[in-house]
Amino acid sequence: MSKRDEPRTFQKRTFQKRPIQKVLQDEAATLAFGAELLATLKAHYADGVVVFLEGNLGAGKTTLARGILRALGHLDAVKSPTYTLLEPYDMLDWEVFHFDLYRLGSPGELEFTGFDEIMTGPGLKLIEWPEKGQGWLPSAHAKVRLATYDAGSGAPLQRQVSVDFA
Ligand SMILES: Nc1ncnc2c1ncn2[C@@H]1O[C@H](COP(=O)(O)OP(=O)(O)O)[C@@H](O)[C@H]1O
Ligand SMILES: [Mg+2]
After folding, report:
1. R_g of the chain computed on alpha carbons
2. CA of 15 relative to ligand 1 center, distance in Å
3. What is the pLDDT, as a whole number, of residue 90?
4. What's the chain look like in SS3?
5. What is the atom index within ligand 1 of the atom nearest the CA of 100?
6. Whose CA is nearest to atom 7 of ligand 1?
7. Looking at 33-42, 64-73, 109-118, 156-165, which range is the least confident one?
8. Is pLDDT above 90 for 109?
9. Candidate from 27, 131, 161 with most ligand 1 atoms within 8 A of CB, to mutate
10. How far apart are CA 88 and CA 65, in angstroms?
11. Which atom of ligand 1 is nearest to the CA of 31?
């Protein structure tokens, strides 16, 4: 067999999933970071991605979800699904399931019809307050932590974000 006829072997592409750490100076920076994170997730995963959004009330979790949704083409408002637990978005590329588990009484409330299918199925699952669903949620492909950050000298509070990939 000549060299030309040898079956070509492709090296499996391995993406480096380096952790991310950043200061987000204002709301616009959080929204822009949403687009950046989406691009990274798309490079790493074909579909069916679980993202935990951790951080205190007001840390910017919903704002980041809005940035991701905006980058997928959703230009309207993003409701915080605090009372409904889930707000779905049927975007062109990726279906998005935005959860906010803050008011979850017990993880058993997550047994609603379709929950398992959503979690194991395709689409992007963004989950605020994942700690409230501990034991019921699948493991995350990416864990995002947001925190307020005081840059000093009386400047408005900024945000700090870190992302770890599984
Ligand atoms: N990087 C940032 N710097 C300053 N304020 C921000 C930043 N990101 C978001 N915010 C503001 O923080 C507030 C709370 O954000 P939100 O996304 O609702 O928080 P959470 O969902 O974590 O409770 C909003 O008023 C938003 O505009
Ligand atoms: Mg929120």
Report:
1. 18
2. 31
3. 93
4. CCHHHCCCCCCCCCCCCCCEEEEECCHHHHHHHHHHHHHHHHHHCCCCEEEEEECCCCCCHHHHHHHHHHHCCCCCCCCCCCCCCEEEEECCCCEEEEEECCCCCCHHHHHCCCHHHHHHCCCEEEEECHHHHCCCCCCCCEEEEEEEECCCCCCCCEEEEEEEEC
5. 21
6. 27
7. 109-118
8. no
9. 27
10. 12
11. 8
Residue whose tokens read 């480096």: 16
CA 146 to ligand 1: nearest atom = 22
Rounded Cα distance between 118 and 145, Å, is 23
What is the model's pLDDT at position 75? 92
State the pLDDT at residue 3. Answer: 58
Instruction: Give pLDDT tens digits for 15-46.
Output: 568 999 999 999 999 999 999 999 999 998 98
Class of domain 25-160: alpha beta
**Residues near ligand 2 ion, CB 5 Å cutoff:** 61-62, 80
Determine if ligand 1 sits within 6 Å of the CB of residue 61.
yes
| Global pTM value | 0.90
Spans of all domains in the chain = 25-160
